[in-house]
Design brief:
CATH architecture of the largest domain: 3-Layer(aba) Sandwich
CATH superfamily of the largest domain: P-loop containing nucleotide triphosphate hydrolases
Number of strands: 11
CATH class of the largest domain: Alpha Beta
Number of helices: 22
Largest sheet: 5 strands, parallel
């Protein structure tokens, strides 16, 4: 009968266990120095070596000729355990035997001496599945078992185990195995089995296994079926994933507002019979990577990405503002929840969401508005830099007619933004006028933490600085009435000062913009971006 590769290559000594040196070194020391505990608790995600280490420990404590804490694998005891020819090593599944009667049978049996080995070992897998009464029945035996009995409990959900049980055991937490460690093990197995395995494919299998060696070896075996060469396309086909190319194409299509590209990506997924929700989760993860690339310097190095993948992620992140990335991530999360419902058509949901991500004007929620404000700020900053560098010519506004004053002197020239006149000095250089509030989006974020309703009104306003006045223009009188309250003025002022201390000496004015053409007007409407 064919033996699965993960069973064929199950480690037989502690030295063969990959990625758990912090545990195997302690167990080897305890065996070598005859300091083995009476009860162990092995915790960790699936495929990280819990059951494997339990079996090796059972061999080691019964080995007739241990080698520096490792079982020799040659003596009668080791061979009997390997062949499952002894009743003194009992491996049980608590998921199938959850009742108290199951534990009572164990409690009654531990009083008898081992039949052929030095020590009887009980390995209880998925121990968190035991009922409360079963745990209670186990407590006394677990605390003071007979001298020749060892309990090894294994679980993937340690938080479900009563503290009274964990306190009676020596606990070991198994870590997820790093991708490069898994890839090296896969290359070793591929060499032994005459499987052609590329480095990229080994790395991808390691990433898809999510730190579990058993899952990685199983995927390798499936990919190598019928003598196939194991490369990237083969692994993606067997794992049912679309590949990074589709992720990059989708993200760039969103950035370029390319609807044809968006629909072609979804069509390819449907035509290949790949699960759209799996692609969607990969897309969410990529947006997470873009957020890290945008907000941090080196955080991507913690996610086991190659140098090319990091460069691709940073390149895509440069196409968006941080606010837009966060807004898109929220849309993706909502769509994933809809896709997981039974009544949702995944293709339609994916297409509608991707199109919505290209057009922020379709949404009116705060996150969408902040994204649009940040995009506008970026365009203004680019234009400002071009003006300073001389790449864009700036013409002075046409001055109004100079009128004489009562003392016969000419009045200074004036210009206006919307309805308010601003006095400017005689021309000795460029005209001085209202200037944009560059950190308006940051002020809105601080206000939103205290008063989301106030932020909703503010997101529809115009802000600028004229002299020593911080002016907020509202489209109508109702908006002025809602915003110009003592509490709102206090929140706005505090947010201004927290964002920029230079605003502390300014006067806050909330006025009606009577000449505004539309509610979402901007003081930069006349600038052609």
């Amino acid at each position: 009968m064919h033996q699965a590769l993960y069973r064929k290559y199950r480690p037989q000594t502690f030295d063969d266990v990959y990625g758990q040196d912090h545990i195997t070194s302690v167990l080897k020391y305890e065996v070598a120095n005859n300091k083995v505990s009476h009860a162990y608790l092995f915790c960790g995600s699936r495929g990280t070596g819990k059951t494997t280490c339990a079996k090796i420990l059972a061999k080691a404590v019964n080995c007739l000729d241990p080698q520096n804490g490792d079982p020799c694998g040659k003596c009668d005891a080791c061979r009997a355990i390997a062949d499952e020819a002894t009743v003194d090593i009992l491996e049980m599944d608590a998921a199938s035997n959850t009742g108290v009667d199951y534990i009572r049978d164990i409690r009654d049996a531990v009083v008898y001496s081992p039949a052929m080995l030095k020590t009887r070992v009980y390995i209880i897998d998925e121990v968190h599945m035991l009922s409360t009464s079963a745990f209670n029945a186990l407590l006394k035996t677990l605390e003071e078992p007979p001298e020749k009995v060892i309990f090894i409990l294994a679980t993937t959900e340690v938080h479900k185990i009563p503290i009274t049980v964990t306190s009676r055991c020596q606990r070991f937490d198994f870590r997820r195995i790093r991708t490069e460690v898994i890839a090296n093990r896969l290359k070793y197995i591929a060499e032994k089995e005459s499987i052609t395995l590329s480095d990229d494919a080994a790395h991808l299998i390691g990433k898809l296994s999510n730190g579990g060696m058993r899952d990685a070896i199983s995927l390798l075996e499936v990919s190598a079926g019928q003598g196939h060469e194991v490369n990237l396309p083969r692994v993606r086909e067997c794992a049912g994933i679309s590949g990074r190319e589709n992720i990059l194409k989708a993200v760039r299509s969103i950035a370029n507002k390319d609807w044809d590209g968006i629909f072609s990506v979804v069509a390819e997924l449907v035509a290949s019979s790949m699960n759209i929700s799996v692609f969607w989760q990969d897309l969410i993860a990529f947006y997470r990577d873009m957020m890290l690339a945008k907000a941090t310097k080196n955080a991507l190095n913690n996610y086991e990405l190659t140098e090319d993948e990091i460069a691709e992620t940073k390149d895509c992140a440069s196409l968006f503002t941080l606010e837009t990335i966060l807004y898109h991530s929220r849309l993706l999360d909502r769509a994933l929840g809809e896709m997981q419902s039974k009544t949702c058509d995944q293709r339609i949901c994916a297409e509608l969401t991707l199109v919505r991500m290209t057009e922020g004007r379709m949404a009116t929620d705060t996150e969408s508005l902040l994204s649009r404000i940040a995009e506008l700020e970026g365009k203004v900053n680019i234009l400002s830099a071009q003006i300073k560098s001389g790449n864009v010519a700036v013409t002075d506004p046409i001055p109004e007619e100079v009128k004489p004053t009562d003392n016969g002197q000419s009045a200074p020239e004036t210009t206006s933004i919307r309805e308010e006149a601003v006095v400017i000095p005689e021309r000795t250089g460029p005209a001085i006028g209202p200037r944009e509030v560059e950190d308006w989006a940051e002020i809105l974020r601080k206000i939103e933490d205290k008063d989301p309703a106030c932020t909703a009104f503010l997101s529809q306003t115009i802000s600028c600085i004229i002299g020593n006045e911080f002016i907020i223009k509202v489209a109508d009188g109702f908006g002025v009435m809602m915003l110009d309250t003592p509490d709102n003025r206090k929140n706005i002022t505090e947010a201004m000062i927290q964002t920029n201390p230079d605003y502390a000496g300014m006067t806050l004015k909330i006025v009606e913009d009577k000449k505004a053409k539309k509610q979402t007007a901007s003081p930069f409407d006349d600038i052609n971006f």
